[in-house]
From TrEMBL:
PROSITE patterns: HTH_DEOR_1 (PS00894), HTH_DEOR_2 (PS51000). It comes from the Bacteria. This is DeoR/GlpR family DNA-binding transcription regulator. The keyword Transcription regulation applies. Pfam families: DeoRC, HTH_DeoR. The keyword Heme does not apply. The lineage of its organism: Bacteria, Pseudomonadati, Pseudomonadota, Gammaproteobacteria, Salinisphaerales. Coiled coil: none annotated. GO terms for molecular function: DNA binding.
Length: 256
């Protein structure tokens, strides 16, 4: 198993269990205790975990301002993200204008849309997503200006925000670092401003988030759940939260 996959699996496990001993984590990812110790030390340095006697635990503020580097993020809840990506890609109609927000779930939408070979016009603030979509002669790909965020493919900044704000598109897929009954949030105000611009530019917006993002809160609340026309997630969503959202009349689609 590649290091990024191991580290993603450790984060997924500790988000559910809160604590894990080094031997248990080593068994989980199928490596030696010394190897998993190095994985844990790296995740501690990145701000996701903290070391305990004989193991590690998730930092209580892990979801507020800290997010995994892209190579780890893409491996977290990979199967759920692929299901969401497939379903979201089915929503795209021939000839539509579509914004794909930056992120690992929206990357799966891009891959699924590419496989459909459907003709549409795409706008994205993610240079990696743009590169994937550009493989298709049927997709007209546009990338706003801006600054590429360090160690990522995400475009941010005022130039990017202004370019997105001028658009008027048919459909947008928006990700979030955390989602609660209160709304969708991100790890920085800069991320939140870009997502608000996408929401305002789109006739129809769909929140795409795996169930591991629920319930959670990050630094910047950028939208109420009612601001989205639909929410796509997987069947790991807590039942009580699903019931609350349904009671509020939110269009929630849970994929199995």
């Amino acid at each position: 198993m590649l290091p990024a996959k191991r580290q993603a699996k450790i984060i997924e496990h500790l988000r559910k269990e809160r604590f894990g001993s080094l031997p248990d984590l080593a068994d989980l990812v199928g490596v030696s205790t010394s190897t998993v110790r190095r994985d844990v030390d790296l995740l501690c340095e990145q701000g996701h975990l903290y070391r305990t006697h004989g193991g590690a635990a998730l930092r209580e503020n892990e979801g507020t301002t800290v997010e995994p580097v892209p190579e780890i993020s893409s491996e977290i809840a990979r199967e759920a993200k692929q299901k969401i990506g497939q379903r979201a890609a089915e929503m795209i109609e021939k000839g539509q204008t579509v914004i794909l927000d930056s992120g690992s779930t929206t990357m799966e939408i891009a891959r699924a849309a590419l496989a459909r070979e459907i003709a549409f016009t795409a706008f994205t603030n993610d240079v990696a997503i743009a590169a994937v979509l550009a493989r298709s002669p049927a997709v007209d790909v546009h990338v706003p200006g801006g600054q590429v965020r360090s160690r990522s493919a995400t475009l941010l900044g005022g130039v990017c925000q202004e370019a997105l704000a001028r658009l008027r598109v048919d459909l947008a897929f928006v990700g979030a670092h955390a989602v609660s009954a209160e709304g969708a949030s991100e790890t920085s105000t800069e991320h939140g401003e870009i997502k608000r611009a996408i929401l305002e530019a789109s006739a129809r917006t769909v929140l795409v988030a795996d169930s591991g993002k629920f319930p959670g809160r990050s630094l910047c609340l950028f939208a109420r759940l009612e601001d989205f026309d639909a929410i796509l997630t997987d069947d790991g969503l807590p039942a009580d939260l699903a019931a609350e959202l349904d009671g509020r009349g939110i269009d929630l689609e849970v994929l199995t």
